[in-house]
Amino acid sequence: MQRDLARLINPNAVLAGANLVETCVRERADLLVTARLGTFDLTPIAVPASFDPARIDHVVAAVGTGPHSVLAASVGYLVAQALSCHVEFVTAVRADELPRAEHVLQQLLTDRPNSSWRIVESGDPTSLLASTPEGTLIVAGAPGGNWFQRQLFGPGARLRVRAPAGSVVVRSAPRRVFHVVSEPQFWVGPRLLVKDAAELILVPVAPVVDEGVLVGVIRRSATASATAGAMTVEDVMETAPIVTTTDARDALDEVAEFFEGAPVPIVDGSGRFVGSVDQPPRLHGEK
To answer: Are 108 and 69 in contact (CB under 8 A)?
Structure first.
């Protein structure tokens, strides 16, 4: 089931190795298709149940205002496109949620042809999906999302509604640094003379790397004030805030001011320098 779903979403899907973290980082994975939700949160998750592409001729994505709705809509749409069938985005809401739900559903339909949406004010949201015809695949966000999604699940995160042609439960996750990191472009060694570093460093802050390990950073301003004698980079470098490949992308915003707009050096789990992430100019100096 997992392989069938993965290849419908992406024909070039890669089989995960024994080390999930290593595979996800190496392949810059956008989604992990697996047998259970578990606690793995490095990437978004999709879990199929009773999933048989040969039986599917209609896809229903249960969406709303919860954190997993965009992923549910995306997975449902990609499966429908691969199988050349229609996808419907549905939600049940309480009266106070209606305006926001309409706005969300209209956004989900943007640039998604061959799709439609349906919204119902309902005290029993499971009734909305209770009469789905044969051949319907149901895609829903994991428990803990919006009110509608929470009503769809019973004990053990099992759907409380009938899924004639199987179901897919999805859970979103933040984008990670490994999605945006680039190959190493520039660094200096700790034993380089400061006067030589001053001629090489063109950015406000540069990484200092020793035998592949990030050991600190040096500021261009420091080279300008310490070019005399035999001073080395090691003498004037600073300790760098650590950003790893598996950190959420928000970690880049947290260190933007420290790096003064220069590329942020990135390390792997062992501290080895693996690349950098360019900062948009607008980040420099912003709070």
So the answer is: yes
Structure-token match 């200092």, residue found: 208
Asked whether residue 157 falls in the same domain as residue 193, the answer is no
Residue span of the structural domain in which 252 resides: 178-283
User: What single letter denotes the amino acid at residue 121?
Assistant: E
- How many domains in the chain? 2
Q: CA 208 to CA 212: how far, in whole Å?
A: 10
**Cα–Cα nearest to 245, from 277, 214, 217:** 277
CA distance 144 to 163: 20
% of residues, the chain, pLDDT over 90? 56
CATH number where 113 lies: 3.40.50.620
pTM here? 0.80
Q: How far is CA 60 from the centre of its chain?
A: 23
CA distance 89 to 258: 44
